[in-house]
Amino acid sequence: MASLDHVDLELIAALSADPRATVVALAEKLGLSRNTVQSRMSRLDQAGVFQSFERSIAPSALGFPLQAFISIGLDQSVLPQVIEELKRLPEVVQAHGVSGQVDLLALVACRDARHLFDVDARILAIPGVERSETRLVMSESVPYRVSGLMELARREPRP
Question: Tell me, what CATH number does 28's domain have?
Fold first, then answer.
């Protein structure tokens, strides 16, 4: 990934503060031309800086108030196939490959305990999955954020 300069970091910070900001509003706020902002946003997008333009929606608002982390142990030789199968399960809202005793950590959203039990059973039925362990989410103590990292990057640029 390309290194981010001061202007990139200011643009990202402005977008983080106001994700709905238009290119014109961002240009005005940063004292840049509209074309400069548009060009930089395109470059940042192509470089993979922006993870998703999907609006963040609370699963509970959609009728899925129960969230859980499912630790998944599997046969490493079928990891890509297991990931593709997890992508097909709508209840899997996020999954990460991790180190340690398990191979994948999936965040799932379910309607209730019975639904969670069924989701876990579907995960265990994926060829190559050897075991799972489920932990209920009791609260979100620190929501996903990168504002602290942005401030750190602005103060301490990469070498």
Answer: 1.10.10.10
